[in-house]
Amino acid sequence: MSGSVLKVTDLKISYGGIQAIKGIDLVVNKGELVALIGANGAGKTTTLKAVTGTLPNCRVEGHIEYAGQPIHGAASFELVKRGLAMVPEGRGVFTRMSIIENLQMGAYTRNDKVGVSVDIDKWFDIFPRLKERANQMAGTLSGGEQQMLAMARALMCRPMLLLLDEPSMGLAPIMVEKIFEVIRDVSAQGVTVLLVEQNAKLALEAAHRAYVMESGLVTMSGNAKQMLNDPRVREAYLGES
Questions:
Q1: Virtual CA dihedral for 44, 50, 56, 57, nearest 10 degrees?
Q2: Is residue 142 over pLDDT 60?
Q3: Cα–Cα distance for residue pair 184/147, rounded to 1 Å
Q4: Which residues are within 8 A (CB) of 95 and not within 5 positions of it... i.e. 6 or more apart?
Q5: More confidently predicted of 89 and 202
């Protein structure tokens, strides 16, 4: 693993008089799976939205660099063309489009029709439930099936960096297991991943490195496996003492 794909330096975000992010530094190196954990309201999702240019009207200060280039102010659709994809909290599938149409939309930046078809078959193999329902409207799927579709759609653009925002939220345990199995496989294939996840145990078990956010600040960072044994992390996020 060498070279940073994403570098965030002294990021500050304010909504009116409220400072949501208070000056954080964060690096994701090529080939890494990095977890960003913390309680609700810590600023994790706001950080991802700052990276993808999808924040509502607010004041953003600091420096965000992707693939060696500053991206502050870049349009989100331009970032997708450059290989930065995000699976948002709440999945965000196109509910009135079929599963196969959602996957095709994920590949809208590509011109290789044969490659797109191959990738659709690949994700159907990994998520056979989606294959069984290929022509079904995405809005009729269960939460777990929609999460599968959202992940497969994001991966259809063959991203250099994949951002995942709370992929296990609201899912049954068996579905959470499947989603994390895919996250680990995607990482093993060389895709760089930044994972925001409230299930700290699963996130830390899957990740190479991790950051802990509290009230808009990064309060800890380091090797994810070592963090699993850190008493502060165990007490605050794993429910252990």
A1: 120
A2: yes
A3: 15
A4: 137, 138, 139
A5: 202
pTM of the full structure: 0.93
CA–CA dist 3, 125 (Å, integer): 32
Across the range 105-117, mean pLDDT stands at 94
**DSSP H/E element including 162:** strand 161-165
Residue type, 62: G
Task: Name the phi and psi angles at 95, rounded to 5.
Answer: -65, -30
Nearest to 82 by CA among 164, 161, 9: 161
What b/e readout covers 28-55, taking b as 16+ CB neighbours within 10 angstroms? bbebbbbbbbbeeebbbbbbbbbbbbeb
Statement: residue 2 has pLDDT above 80: no
pLDDT digits (tens, 9 = 90+) for 7-35: 999 999 999 888 999 999 999 999 999 99
